[in-house]
Amino acid sequence: MDNLIAARGVFGMSLSFHIMFAALGVVMPFFLLLSQGLYLKKKDPDYLALNKKWTTAFAITYAIGAVSGTVLTFGLGLFWPRFMDFAGPMIGVPLSIEVMFFLLEAIFLGIYLFGRDLLSPWVHWLSGVPLLVGGFASMVVVILANSWMNTPVGFTLDETGRVADVEVLRAMFSPSWYAETSHMTVAAFEAVGFAFAAVYAWGMIRGRRDEYHKKGFFLGMIVVTLAAPLMIFSGDHTARQLAANEPVKLAAIEPLYETEAGAGISIGGIPDNEAGEVKYDIEIPYMLSILSYDDPNATVQGLNEFPEDERPNPLAMWWAYDAMTGIGFFLAVLIPVFWIFYWRYRGVPTYRPLLYAITLSGFLGFLAIELGWLTTEEGRQPWVAQGVMRIDEGYTLAPGIGVAFIAFALLYVFLASTLIWLLKRIATGTPPEKEVEEAQRQEESEGAYAL
Amino acid sequence: MPFDVILAGALGVSLLLFALAGGADFGAGFWSLLARRGERAKEQQQLVEQSIGPLWEANELWVVVSAVILWSAFAPAFSAYGTALFIPFVLAIMAILLRGAFLAFRIEAQEEAPGAYRFFGEVFGTMSIVTPFFLGAAAGAIASGRLRLDANELPIDGYVQPWVGPFPIMVGILGVATCVYLSAIYLTLDASGNEPLQEDFRLRGILASMALGALGVVTIFATRADAPYMWEQLYPGGPGSILMVVAALCLFASLALLYFRRYWLARTAAIAQVVAVFCAWAFAQYPYLLVPDITIQDAASPRSVLVAMSILIIVYVVVLGPALWWLFRLFKSHASSKREES
User: Fold this and answer.
1) pLDDT digits over A241-271, tens only?
2) Whether the Cβ atoms of residue B156 and residue B149 lie closer than 8 Å to each other
3) Is the dihedral of CA B64, B66, B70, B72 positive or negative?
4) Coil, strand or helix at A173
């Protein structure tokens, strides 16, 4: 296997694996705080039972996130040493901050796990706050590094092409930083919220209509209801950011082959690179110009503006972009539908088609994250740092990367299948009645706390 | 201020923390693997789980701190390690991935999937030995001078020869032995209150310190034969040899203290032993990041990055220090409340 392809393959697998746990690592603490806060306010043992179940699941997903993150940290040096040699000084600082917040999360995970029996309830709740802060901040700063790859600034090169000077803050906050960090964090909340709702929606389909399931389901829907409106703003801002700073990516994901005033948006269809047009699509006129520049007659740059060997291939990601947006709209519509049913049922709806749709959305949210990630990475090709370093200048020259690719592929399949098997055991393991009972017992025996 | 030297120091400290905290967790995996038969095998396994329990992620992440310091402040060295030592590092990260995941699986499987508990434990234990071996072998290759780079910064002798030699292999084995030794001694303290269990780990600690001593002696010969730059500093009577003498004395002290059942002091001596070995290593390798082709100064990033990273190190201490203190305090009261229960 060609080493470049193998290196990209290993990294693609590792990142698409890690990104799910990263999203869980940010949003699950929010769910822990939410459920525990509700329990402390309302003294309802269902919430405590949910909190305990989620703590167990979080301990596992956090561990996988931590080790797969370790793989990526070393992997950057192992699979992309020439890129790191060049870019280390610029993306190293945000990544070092990321590791600090990740460690903070790790330490407070320990405190939160030990603290349940040792801390007074509200102090225990407070010890979950740094968990959320650590997760959230580490996600933001790690995306700063990715945004630098898309819009690299803040450095000067000497005559040999080595980095001579770095403006640390400018490199950290490159032009795409805000669009990327806001888009990904909101996406994480939406995807994980739907995943939580989906677990209980599925339980309800299988006949469990108890309060425990209804509450778990409802909390998931609350979180997505808060996240979804933000997603509309974030998506809109991202389009404008692309037009301003990454025009070639925008042209490729549409795809727009020729520069056009009053450009429309094409939905579906098949891009034909040779003919330079999209076939069998539905076009909404002026829409691309409006979304990019707030002006129906604005000129949007097409792929023809860029040298042929510096264009991403639309076939690699136009479908991913369309699918991601499609999922986004589906999820956005599902939320008001849920509330209409909620109103009609005077409480958590048990209407089966709706429950099936929400179970499906639990997968779709994560799929949208993967597709969005694919879009932004493929849209930067053939560059590893846009306009500065090509991807074939960045990969390792060590031999045998193909073997590593196969080994990692087997490893991830093995890990993922074991994890899914175990999480399923946990989800169905202790029946909720028992958990609730136990929570009730704990509530009654107000113990003495060590600290 | 020589920010590059400060950051190289921070790199050393993060590696040391990894060895003292994460390393002991790897060693615990070894003991868990060995606890197969005997009446207290199950108790031993549980002790291992309790003592590394929810701390292990934080312990292991120190090596990630080392990696980010390396790539921010000394990117060319990181890149050279990643290329030339591709094989041991890839094997080490695969082992880290498997080990961490299966440890987490195992902790949950105890209640939810008892049938798989044993298998998860075998994977966790085996990978706990594999990881320090390959990390140690890579470190040995870096220090030995076996790894030389050509003009394109590619290894002259290929990708196997730099780390398959007497010194790197001995350092790999020594790495495993150090983890095993630290862990046994930590576990004697964690087992306090349960005398038979404590005696088990006392005996294991004594055996491990003897093994570590014997391996240390072998490593002296490997150093002379295979790591000339290290030997120049550390040969008996050489400028760095005093640190090696301190390390040997600490090792002996920990053995004696274990024998007399002074567990707290034994642990202190064991930690001092590892610190002394690290200081000796750092002293002998300074100012090289890759002996003898890349120095700290060669690889240092532009000054602005070094300043930013130095400030960040202070933030690390301020933010993580109190959090760690609280965690260990809770861990202690957790352990003592467990003891009261039993």
Assistant:
1) 998 889 899 888 888 888 888 888 888 788 8
2) yes
3) positive
4) coil
pLDDT in tens, A64-89: 888 888 889 888 989 999 999 899 99
Distance CA B246, CA B208 (A): 18
CB A33 within 8 A of CB A128: yes
A209: number of Cβ within 10 Å: 13
Selected for mutation to probe chain B from A111, A126, A406, A438 (highest B CB count within 10 Å) is A111
For residue A184, pLDDT over 90 is answered with yes
Do the Cβ atoms of A88 and B301 come within 8 Å? yes
Read off the pTM. 0.90
A378, with CB counted inside 10 A (0-12, 13-18, 19+), is buried
What are B51-81's pLDDT values in tens digits?
887 788 888 889 999 999 998 999 999 999 9
Residue A113's pLDDT is 87
Judge whether residue A448 has pLDDT over 90.
no
Of B57, B86, B111, the CB nearest to A396: B86
| Three-state SS annotation for A252-292 | HHCCCCCCEECCCEEEEEEEECCCCEEEEEEEECCHHHHHH
Which chain B positions have a beta carbon within 8 Å of A135's beta carbon? none
- The pairing of strands A265-272 and B294-295 is unpaired
Q: Name the residue ranges covered by the structural domains of chain B.
A: 3-288+301-341
- Tokens at residue A221, please? 């829907």
Q: What is the mean pLDDT of the segment spanning B26-43?
A: 87
For the question of an ipTM over 0.85, the answer is yes
Instruction: Using CB atoms within 10 Å of the CB of residue A22, give its burial: 0 to 12 exposed, 13 to 18 middle, 19+ buried.
Output: buried
B52 touches A at CB < 8 Å: no
Measured CA to CA, the distance from residue A5 to residue A79 in angstroms comes to 11
| CA dist., res. A74 & res. B95, Å (int) | 13
Give the Cα separation of A113 and A32 in Å (integer). 12
Which residues in B lie closer than 8 A to residue A145 (C-beta atoms)? none
| Whether B324 contacts chain A with CB within 8 A | yes
CA gyration radius, chain A: 24
Q: According to DSSP H, which parts of A279-400 are helical?
A: 287-293, 314-345, 352-378
**Nearest beta carbon to residue B68 from set A63, A92, A419:** A92
Residue A416 token pair: 């993922």
Residue B79 touches chain A, beta carbons under 8 Å: yes
Question: What distance in Å separates the CA atoms of residue B150 and residue B195, rounded to the nearest whole number?
Answer: 58
Dihedral sign, Cα of residue B183, residue B189, residue B191, residue B195: positive
What is the β-pairing status of strands A383-385 and A389-390?
antiparallel
Determine the pLDDT at residue B341: 64
Are residues A116 and B110 in contact, defined by beta-carbon separation less than 8 angstroms? no
Question: How does DSSP assign B101-141, residue by residue?
Answer: HHHHHHHHHHHH-HHHHHHHHHHHHHHHHHHHHHHHHHHHH
Q: Alpha-carbon distance A246 to A242, whole Å?
A: 5
Q: Tell me the C-alpha to C-alpha distance, in Å, between residue A207 and each of A210, A312, A355, A424.
A: 9, 49, 12, 17
| Mean pLDDT, rounded, of chain A | 88
DSSP state of A299: E
